[in-house]
Design brief:
With 375 residues, the chain is of the alpha/beta class. The chain folds into two domains: 150 residues, Alpha-Beta Complex (Aspartate Aminotransferase, domain 1), CATH 3.90.1150.10; 201 residues, Aspartate Aminotransferase, domain 2 (3-Layer(aba) Sandwich). It contains eleven helices and 13 strands. The strands form two sheets. Strands 1-5-4-6-7-8-9-3 form an eight-stranded mixed β-sheet, with helices on both faces. The chain has a five-stranded mixed β-sheet with strand order 2-12-13-11-10. Helix 9 packs parallel to helix 11. The longest helix is centred in the last third of the chain and has 26 residues.
Length: 375
């Protein structure tokens, strides 16, 4: 069974640095390191164009030319206010649900803010390690946030029984950033309860071949909210586009928390294009290619002394534990490679780094640099 620690601190930055740490606020936790929940991978490469970017999980070489053309054509309509009906209908059709179950957002990050501000919850819980923005948004909205910390020795696998029974909001990623763990859909569905909102962040699910274990489109799980992002596979982080799939009543409640015209016309055009049959076929091919490139990267990492890879990895990134992690990360920067630091994720320490999956030539160059540091 997964052993977890639940913390309920009100301090936005305080967290145990290791799974299994004492409850924050106790004497033993008083010296726990503080982490920056707002730190993201782009900070590792900002202003350093000479670095090979292995810190950000956006697919390299994107957007594709056909998507750029779509965005360019959308500019002719900028004089008109955005109309999201066509994009909303396209997303609904992609997942086989009614349009009333779809909310278009300025990326998944906006969805986390809407949930934090609109929902009246008493005990929100975030399953960590995972993307830190949900907890940051909840704290900013004044919530006291509980944490379920999954352990490295358990492969960061979820035990549904570890989530407190009285939690009325549960947030979990699948596949999880930064661990790249893909939780079984059945285990996630077991988290559903009457009176509980279950938020599953599927921002990287389209990078999983066949999107197996996806809950998007399910209408039989009570309180289920699925978040999707179109920024990762299609390289649209600067455009900001994502969506929420949920019960129509909850969608309406979240919509009331949005400003007027929250998604721009180019982003709406991108949403419609990225859920088209052509785009879905291309995303499927990309997912298989990423899986092959990930296997190559992981095989090379496992040959290095003092290196551990969390597996089986299923996302377009891998979580790596390496002796002297902080120094190794800086050494990699000196050799021209940026990786994502792990110590800003609750439950991880400075020995952890996240590495984006790239093409084999880039992976081989990175492995060569890391091999020199591991010696």
């Amino acid at each position: 069974m997964v052993t977890v620690t639940v913390t309920t601190t009100t301090e936005a930055m305080r967290t145990p640095t290791e799974a299994g740490s004492p409850v924050a606020g106790s004497p033993a936790a008083a010296g726990a390191a503080e982490v920056d929940l707002r730190h993201h991978g782009d900070a590792e490469v900002r202003g350093r164009d000479e670095l090979v970017d292995l810190a950000v999980n956006v697919r390299a070489g994107t957007p594709p030319s056909w998507l750029k053309q779509c965005l360019a054509e959308s500019l002719d309509g900028l004089a008109a206010y955005p109309d999201g009906r066509a994009a909303r209908a396209a997303v609904a059709a992609r997942h086989g649900v009614a349009p009333e179950r779809v909310l278009l957002t300025a990326g998944a990050a906006e969805a986390f803010v809407l949930l934090a501000r609109a929902l009246r919850v008493r005990r929100p819980v975030v399953v960590h390690p995972q993307f830190t923005e949900p907890e940051a948004a909840l704290r900013d909205a004044g919530h006291v946030v509980g944490r379920v910390l999954l352990r490295a020795e358990d492969g960061f696998r979820l035990d549904p029984g570890a989530v407190p029974e009285d939690a009325d909001l549960v947030v979990v990623g699948n596949p999880t950033n930064p661990t790249s763990v893909l939780h079984p859909a059945a285990d996630l569905a077991r988290l559903a309860r009457p009176g509980r909102v279950l938020v599953v962040d599927e921002a990287f699910m389209d990078a999983v071949p066949g999107e197996r274990e996806a809950l998007a489109g399910r209408v039989d799980v009570p309180g289920l909210v699925v978040l999707r992002s179109l920024t990762k596979t299609w390289g649209l982080a600067g455009l900001r586009i994502g969506y929420v799939l949920a019960d129509p009543a909850l969608v309406a409640e979240l919509s009331r928390a949005q400003p007027l015209w929250p998604v721009s016309s180019p982003a709406l055009a991108a949403a419609e294009a990225c859920v088209s049959p052509r785009a879905l076929a291309e995303a499927g091919h990309v997912a298989h290619r990423v899986a092959a490139e990930r296997r190559h990267l992981v095989a090379g990492l496992l040959e290095l002394p003092g290196v551990r890879v969390v597996g089986p990895a299923e996302g377009p990134f891998v979580l790596v534990r390496v002796a002297g992690g902080g120094g190794v990360r800086e050494g990699l920067r000196e050799r021209g490679f940026a990786v994502r630091r792990g110590d800003t994720f609750p439950g991880l320490g400075p020995e952890w780094v996240r590495v984006a999956v790239r093409d084999r030539a880039t992976a081989d160059s990175f492995l060569s640099a890391l091999r020199g540091l591991c010696r």
